[in-house]
Specification:
Blueprint: H1 7-12, E1 15-19, E2 27-32, H2 39-49, E3 53-55, E4 60-65, E5 68-73, E6 77-83, H3 86-100
Antiparallel strand pairs: 1-2, 2-6, 3-4, 4-5, 5-6
């Protein structure tokens, strides 16, 4: 029997959606930061770091944290590939928020 998701997992709406195509021992998750992102600033920061793929016109940025691959979308959606479970997804989202949380636009 699995335990109920922690409140933070629910807050981000983390959902394990399918096994990861790169490695069947991992999963892909979808989540939401709850509001739009300032992708211009996020893209600038990621470009400085290198090893990222961005599309300013589409409002999308792809990068890695540890072994996981993160895709951020302007609308606040987050896709995370190569995670073990919901808790691992939450750890990755918390790292994303540490780096970019100040660029989540306040909901009106």
């Amino acid at each position: 029997m699995t335990s109920a998701p922690t409140p933070a997992v629910k807050d981000y709406g983390i959902r394990i959606v399918k096994p990861c195509v790169d490695d069947p021992n991992y999963f892909t998750a979808h989540a939401s930061l709850g509001s739009e992102l300032d992708m211009d600033v996020i893209c600038d920061k990621l470009e400085e770091e290198g090893n990222t793929r961005i599309s300013r016109s589409l409002g999308v940025a792809k990068f890695k944290i540890e072994n996981s691959e993160i895709t951020l979308y302007r609308n606040g959606r987050v896709d995370i590939r190569k995670i073990r479970d919901e808790e691992h997804a939450l750890e990755i989202i918390e790292q994303v928020m540490e780096r970019f949380g100040e660029y989540v636009k306040a909901a009106i």
